[in-house]
Amino acid sequence: MRKPVIAIDGYSSTGKSSISKVIAKKLGLIHMDTGALYRGVTFFAINECSDENGKIDLEKLFKKLNDIHLEFKKIDEELILFLNGNDISKEIRTNEVSGNVSLIACQKEVRDYLMETQRSIAQKGGVIMDGRDIGTVVLPDADYKFFLTASIDERTKRRFLELQSLGIENSETEVRENLISRDKIDSERAVAPLKKADDAILVDNSKMTKEETIDYILSFIS
Ligand code: C5P
């Protein structure tokens, strides 16, 4: 029997990736965190395409896109992101990457480049993919679509604790500002903006635990 294709979109720090990871395990699906891919390109751009003032040179990045080989490898049950053979799973969570990723993700060239990686994974079914445009653009024919939202206070708290657990220093104000700024850029961009697909189920998990959100989503999947 063909396994389902599930699209999970939504605002930053609504728990999309950690929830998708658990659902993938329960249903025997592959999980793809597409935000990590955009972060991977951003990490590359910061290191390989910055000018002398530290500003990312987009034209240089577009010319070098074919040099970027991003790959997820399963290590100890975790999917670890590799860039050209190097583990970059920790580096893609830094403040510098978070501060630049939405500007990189606005670029049509970057989105086109990552499209193939995302679609090829879903071809055989059996995948849960989380991001911003999965239900609207990447996998418009997904079997199930969900759109996650939560209050900014709750999301700030969650991201702050997540970063703390990764040993990344940040004030709550910085975390909050980054979330607001990314959501604004992601929602207002011309290409593949963050928005709920018409046929997606809206899940506001402000007052739900991670487990409650997972159970709620699973209740729709037959
Ligand atoms: O999911 P995460 O917060 O790690 O995503 C980082 C950024 O990558 C988002 O703020 C957004 O700019 C971009 N992104 C995107 N489309 C996706 C996934 C992520 O534009 N499908």
Automatic annotation (TrEMBL):
Annotated ranges, domain Cytidylate kinase: 6-221
TM segment ranges: none
Pfam families for the chain: Cytidylate_kin
E.C. designation(s): 2.7.4.25
One function term, GO molecular function aspect: kinase activity
Keyword set, alphabetical order: ATP-binding, Cytoplasm, Kinase, Nucleotide-binding, Transferase
NCBIfam families: cmk (TIGR00017)
Designated name of the protein: Cytidylate kinase
Organism, scientific name: Kaistella montana
Gene, per the UniProt record: cmk
